[in-house]
């Protein structure tokens, strides 16, 4: 056992090195005596200091993650705070669909239409992709075996690898024409287009996390059900799914978070028109896309610039809550099954 | 006695039905990968040539090649790796080998999860606020790469931590019992056994970094720059932004041009991913424990 510190990997600590026979009464030798006999366990040589040094250095790596997440919050708040304190009218911000930051006489900053845009696209994406992702997770996790299983997992991984700007380009070029032809509508860049694209983008993470959740259900559950004469399908419906339901919920939440925060694909495929949609064929504009499209045209420190950072704060807070909830839900399952 | 009853048969039919249904769903989900590749190859291969890869865009980006964008992407990825790989491996070593199971470790894990979940455009805002303005790097490769590094840090951390934890605990115990310190054990036993897994994670990060667009839009990537970057303080073109620009911002681009750019970009990314997957499969076959 190394001199100090906890055991890695969360395992049980290794047994202490064998001591010479205990003196009568079972008491350990005094610390001074122990030090003399097991001096190598209490050394303060170069290797010991080196170990301490490395522990400090890698701790910095761990701390950096905290520093960055705090840094993100602090820096976007630093740029956006002025708007929240001076210009922001909460009722207009959340209640008005008019996002007119560039108006010369009377700029208005209402994000209702942008929220509706994000919500409609993400909502449609979830409607499309939740059933398929969970279906795929069940097939890959419970039915598929061997080569087929490996091949499907690799394809899901490749689906996740396609960059969002390429997805956006697919929406812009291929899906756009497809929707115009299939549904006979004048414009193919709309909620439907962006929703399908976003659904495909969110599917891999949902499939992967959901499959992990199914895998976390102990095999003894399945074996017990099988011994009762249940078919595989009955086992899945009656045993595996109920046991994994929190993990599946966590998977869906992470998918929602992914869709909510997606930028380039939504910017290119949704039509980018400020609009509260009434049908899937309406063009909309998302929160993320608004920042991406407008930040380049604003002067640093202007109201418009600070308003865009305020949208960033909104996005940060909402995704933070979604991710936190998903993590708590997923972690809850792991603990219960341990 | 063991003959199938009507109920058994019905149960089997139900099971078969759902199995086929879920197989179909899986196939529908993954078929777009193949379709997208197919369409891009069919429509984009006409644009590809040696010249396309080795000349700058010309005639207002409606003709010519993609050399500055290709080189720019290599710069961005390389500088981002230099920043994020040491930090990510350090964090993973800490979490896997040193961290006690307490609230502080849980906060670190939570931070990593959230870092991975923050929208890319929020990372862009952070990059503008922190690197471009506060640290005065200006819009430069340095600012853009650091933004990318922060964004992809969780990829390295998670992949490295997984491959470190895949090294059996018994290996470490054997080494400790020889009197080695924690760091001696990590250096001589844990890292050599995990290095290929770490490499797999780094390749994955390269692929992620190369495809990102939003974080570099306002921090260092330029719409059009006909020459190559000379230092990390220059702006640069990038493949991902170039695809966005010629497909949405520039009128009169011949149709095959954006398809060609998309084909090159997706090939870069998928080749990286395939490499990482192949590496992993090979490792699994070679594993000694």
Compact summary:
The complex is a heterodimer of chains A (338) and B (289). Chain A is an all-alpha fold and 338 residues long.
Q: How would you sum up the global shape of chain A?
A: globular
Strand content of chain A: under 5%
Largest sheet of chain B: 2 strands, antiparallel
CATH superfamily of the largest domain in chain B: MetI-like
Named CATH topology of chain A: MetI-like fold
CATH architecture of the largest domain in chain B: Orthogonal Bundle
- Number of DSSP-assigned strands of chain B: 2
Most strands sheet of chain A: 2 strands, antiparallel
Q: Quickly give the structural class of chain A.
A: mainly alpha
* Oligomeric state: heterodimer
Instruction: Just give the CATH class of the largest domain in chain B.
Output: Mainly Alpha
Which residues of chain B form runs of ≥5 with pLDDT under 50?
A: none
For the largest sheet of chain A, list the strands in their spatial order. 1-2
What's the mean pLDDT score of chain B? 91
* Distance, first to last CA of chain A: 26 Å
Order of helices and strands of chain A: HHHEEHHHHHHHHH
Largest interface: A-B, 100 and 102 residues
What is the CATH C level class of chain A, in words?
Mainly Alpha
Shape of chain B: globular
Number of helices of chain B: 11
Descriptive report:
The complex is a heterodimer of chains A (338) and B (289). Chain A is an all-alpha fold and 338 residues long. Chain A has a single domain (99-337), classed as MetI-like (MetI-like fold, Orthogonal Bundle), CATH 1.10.3720.10. In chain A, 70% of the residues lie in helices and 1% in strands. Chain A is built from 12 helices and 2 strands; from the N terminus they run H-H-H-E-E-H-H-H-H-H-H-H-H-H. Chain A has helices spanning 31-37, 46-87, 90-95, 112-143, 146-161, 164-183, 191-215, 219-227, 232-261, 264-269, 287-294, 303-337, and strands at 99-100, 108-109. Chain A has a two-stranded antiparallel ribbon with strand order 1-2. Chain A starts with 30 loop residues before the first helix and ends with a helix. Chain B contains 11 helices and 2 strands. Chain B has a two-stranded antiparallel sheet. The longest helix of chain B is centred in the N-terminal third of the chain and has 39 residues, at 6-44. Chain B is globular, with a radius of gyration of 24 Å. Classes of the chains: A mainly alpha (338), B mainly alpha (289).
């Amino acid at each position: 056992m190394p001199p100090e510190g906890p055991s890695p990997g969360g395992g049980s600590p290794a047994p202490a090195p064998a001591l010479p026979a205990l003196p009568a009464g079972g008491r350990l030798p005094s610390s001074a005596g122990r030090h003399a006999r097991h001096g190598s366990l209490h050394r303060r040589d170069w290797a010991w200091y080196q170990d301490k040094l490395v522990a400090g250095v890698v701790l910095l790596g761990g701390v950096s993650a905290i520093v960055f997440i705090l840094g993100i919050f602090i820096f976007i708040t630093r740029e956006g705070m002025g708007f929240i304190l001076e210009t922001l009218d909460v009722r207009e911000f959340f209640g008005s669909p008019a996002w007119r930051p560039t108006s010369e006489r009377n700029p208005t900053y209402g994000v209702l239409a942008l929220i509706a845009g994000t919500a409609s696209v993400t909502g449609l994406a979830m409607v499309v992709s939740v059933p398929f992702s969970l279906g795929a997770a069940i097939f890959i996790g419970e039915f598929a075996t061997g080569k087929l299983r490996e091949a499907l997992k690799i394809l899901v991984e490749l689906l996740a690898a396609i960059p969002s700007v390429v997805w956006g380009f697919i929406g812009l070029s291929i899906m756009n024409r497809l929707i115009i032809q299939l549904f006979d509508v004048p414009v193919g860049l709309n909620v439907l287009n962006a929703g399908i694209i976003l659904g495909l983008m969110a599917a891999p993470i949902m499939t992967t996390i959901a499959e992990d959740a199914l895998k976390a259900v102990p095999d003894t559950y399945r074996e017990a059900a099988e011994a009762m004469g249940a078919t595989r399908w009955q086992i899945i419906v009656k045993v595996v799914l109920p046991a994994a339901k929190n993990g599946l919920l966590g998977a869906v939440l992470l998918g929602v978070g992914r869709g909510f925060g997606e930028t380039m694909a939504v910017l290119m495929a949704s039509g980018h028109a400020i609009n509260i949609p009434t049908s899937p064929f309406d063009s909309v504009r998302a929160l993320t896309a608004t920042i991406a499209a407008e930040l380049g045209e604003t002067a640093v420190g202007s109201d418009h610039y600070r308003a865009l950072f305020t949208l960033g704060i909104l996005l940060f807070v909402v995704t933070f809550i979604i991710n936190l909830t998903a993590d708590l839900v997923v972690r809850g399952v792991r603990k219960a099954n341990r | 006695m063991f003959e199938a009853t009507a109920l058994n048969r019905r149960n089997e039919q139900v099971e078969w039905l759902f199995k086929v249904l879920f197989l179909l769903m899986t196939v529908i989900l993954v078929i777009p990968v193949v379709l997208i590749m197919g369409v891009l190859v069919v429509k984009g291969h006409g644009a590809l040539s040696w010249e396309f890869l080795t000349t700058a865009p010309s005639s207002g980006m409606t003709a010519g090649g993609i050399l500055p964008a290709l080189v720019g992407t290599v710069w961005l990825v390389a500088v981002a790796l230099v920043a994020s790989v040491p930090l990510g491996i350090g964090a993973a070593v800490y979490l896997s080998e040193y961290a006690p199971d307490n609230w502080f470790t849980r906060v670190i894990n939570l931070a990593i999860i959230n870092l991975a979940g923050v929208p890319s455009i929020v990372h862009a805002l952070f990059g503008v606020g922190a690197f471009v303005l506060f640290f005065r790097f200006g819009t430069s490769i340095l600012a853009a790469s650091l933004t990318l590094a922060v964004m992809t840090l969780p990829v390295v951390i998670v992949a490295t931590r997984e491959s470190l934890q895949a090294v059996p605990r018994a290996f470490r115990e054997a080494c400790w019992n020889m009197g080695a310190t924690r760091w001696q054990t990590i250096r001589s036993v844990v890292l050599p056994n995990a290095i290929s897994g770490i490499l797999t994670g780094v390749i994955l990060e390269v692929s992620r970094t190369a495809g990102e667009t939003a974080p570099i839009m306002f921090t260092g990537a330029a719409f059009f720059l006909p020459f190559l970057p000379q230092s990390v303080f220059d702006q640069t073109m990038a493949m991902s932004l170039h695809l966005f620009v010629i497909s949405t911002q520039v009128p009169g681009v011949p149709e095959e041009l954006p398809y060609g750019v998309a084909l090159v970009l997706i090939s870069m990314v998928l080749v990286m991913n395939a490499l990482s997957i192949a590496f992993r499969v090979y490792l699994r076959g070679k594993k000694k424990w």
